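User: I'll paste a sequence; please echo it back and then give the predicted structure.

Assistant: Echoing your sequence first, then the prediction.
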Amino acid sequence: MENQDYQITEEELQSFRERGYNEALLPKPLSKRIMGKSNYFTLWMGSVHNIPNYTAVGGFLFLGLSPINIMLALMLSATAVALFMTLNGRAGSKYGIPFALHLRSTYGDMGAKLPGFLRGCVAAIAWFGLQNYTGSLALLILIGKIWPQFLTLGGNTMILGISMPGLIAFTIFWVVNVLIGFGGGEILNKFTAILSPLIYIVFGGMAIWAISAAGGLGAILSYDVAGAVHNISPVFVYFMIINSVLAVWAAPGASVADFTQNAKSTKDQTIGQTASFLVGYGIFAFSSVVILIGGSIRYGIQEWNILNIVDRWDNSFAIVVAMLVFLLTTVSTNATGNIIPAAYQLSALFPKRIDYKKGVLLASVISFMIMPWKLMENANSIFIFLNTIGAVLGPVAGTMIAHYYFVEHQTIDLDQLYMDQQADNRHNIYKGLNKPAYVATVLALVICLSGNFIPALKVISDISWISGFISAFGAYLLLRNFFGK
């Protein structure tokens, strides 16, 4: 395999500009790539240590595996995620192209619009609003600890269906996230560099507290979860956990080129991301299990919401520090997984009218206008909607990787990829719709969702990302033989 990174020339870049592509969509020349191994090492730390991930581990503990096996399953999951992210990120780091163009190289210029819109606009903007609302609830608790009277501002007055303190907290947290989004990858690098040592200190300290509170590590590792199921094969439980963790990374994994296009080299992103996930999940696997079980032993109840454990502490300073770190990890997750991909995708859909910063602003305003606190009132419908979009991303990822490695053989023709839309592109290999890619994606989507309707196939839907990825990967390569190039 040819792994040497492509060196784009200024003449090529100028040619692409003249074809109507803005700076956000152009390939990044090596001279402007700012992310090395250390940047990728810290990039995903905040996204690993967030509230939903800790809650998920609480759910894993009910699947019947011992605490040590949960830790091992999380480490295997981290290895799978690292492999997925580095492999799908190679097109970005080799050619400096963003996700929108990586998607075009797989599905064609017309074909890329729908999966790009679903991942980069609908899912990203909706999740951006929902993450902001979730973070604002934590901020509300934090402000209430410091300034209790804040929680009574406005009395029972509701504005657009939310209390005045809630709206103020949401707006403050929303503004912080928007500012991080405006800064893009450069600000995010500095932000994660500050956040990473805080994660080590805070979660390391919480793990030490939990071991002490439980009476030792042995008590935690031998803890028997009341109500855990024991009728599922332990091997299949491992697959369920790996699938769940992969599903968490389905969206940023599909659009990882938006970050790897800034890599100083493919080697840098490969080593950096691999170390980030293995070290990040190593700490997370240990700390999450230890804190949740240790807190449950300490307070005599099974408590799987880490915020409730923190809220029970009798040290206000420790509560404030821990909550601040949780807020910072939410900001990091929101930037990497939602607002940056949304901005790039809006720029790709309307390249002559929307650049990156306009994309951030537009996506942010829309995320506010949808009033995510109202969406949360009907949790079933919104999560069915978002989970359906998430289920699409496994097949999309499988198709993208199959195409780049086994159809294009890691070679992309940038001159054809950055086509002039006003020219005659009938013979351009990236023009139109890649039918085998679409058929494989839809077929895999049907397969991985089939268990929701056919009980006998429930096992497939229980590992929907894995089944969708494998189905799309295999179906696409087979369909290429029928459709041709």
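The chain has a mean pLDDT of 88. Residues 151 and 449 are 43 Å apart (CA to CA).
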